[in-house]
Amino acid sequence: MKKMPLTLALLPALALSAAAQDVPWKELALGERVEVTFHSGGTIIGKLVSSNPKITTVDYTKEPSITLDMSSEYAGVDGTMTVSKKEIKSVRKVRVERKPISESVPPKAKPADAEPKPEKPKPAAPAPAVEPKPETDEERDARLKREEEERLKAEELQKAKEFYAKFPSPYWGPERSTMIFQKKARGQALSAAESEFDKDYAKLWKKGQEASAPKSEPKKD
Fold first, then answer.
1. What is the pLDDT at residue 60?
2. Mean pLDDT across the chain, nearest whole number?
3. Quick one: what percent of the chain has pLDDT higher than 90?
4. Pairing label, strands 80-84, 88-93
């Protein structure tokens, strides 16, 4: 038979309807139903069997251990258990009838009446929206002025970017502006492109160059 490890502390002791007496090893024989008490105080019940099915008799005075079949003793247990004599305090024969397994298993306890679950707190009502304070005439004028300045600044920056895109470096720039100044001083005629460049160079070119320059990525550690 297949040996099966058990936790002795968790095995329920089988109820006996009659008292049994401790017996010496020489009085034990295969097939007898016995109750084993351990030095720890725990007990188990089973039928004496041989670990080798071919053996029909066993002299327990010479055996270092005993093997118990507990398949019909405990619900859910199917197999045998071998116990060393060193762990055994006493052995008793049990000749009384066993209770059916179904009766030896305690009924499942009924769940206690479930306590009512506490109600979840209701979400707090949202705070009433605070209406914005009406603008005064001074605040409105200041806001409109600020918005107009921002609009003009954005338009000026866009013009500068477009101007630089039309007159990019290195062909156009400070050196070309100096050359145009010298041509005008000598009375030489300027080309249409030079005239257009000279007209807005001081106002737009440098600003457009800075706005058009690619931004360097921050250094990674």
1. 86
2. 79
3. 18
4. unpaired
Tokens, residue 78: 């199917």
Lowest mean pLDDT segment, chosen from 82-86, 106-110, 136-140, 202-206: 106-110
Same domain, 16 and 94: yes
CATH number at residue 82: 2.30.30
Question: Is 126 part of any domain?
Answer: no
Residue 219 in any domain: the answer is no
HSE (side-chain half, CA atoms, 13 Å) at 165: 8
- Assess if residue 129 is contained within a domain: no
Task: Round to whole Å and give the CA distance between 5 and 166.
Answer: 92
Q: 21-31 burial string, b = 16+ CB within 10 Å, else e?
A: eeeeeeebeee
In whole angstroms, what is the distance from residue 217 CA to residue 173 CA? 26
Domain endpoint, select from 48, 80, 100: 100
pLDDT (tens digit per residue) in 68-125: 888 878 777 777 888 888 899 888 888 755 554 555 555 565 555 556 777 888 888 7
Secondary structure (DSSP) of 59-74: -TTT-SEEEEE-TTTS
Residue 116 domain-assigned (yes or no)? no
Longest CA span, the chain: 142
Q: Other C-beta atoms within 10 Å of 176: how many? A: 18
Domain limit, last residue, from 100, 128, 158: 100
The three-class DSSP label of residue 123 is coil
Q: Which residues contact 165 (CB under 8 A, 6 or more apart)?
A: 208, 212
Q: Tokens in use for 62?
A: 């010479």
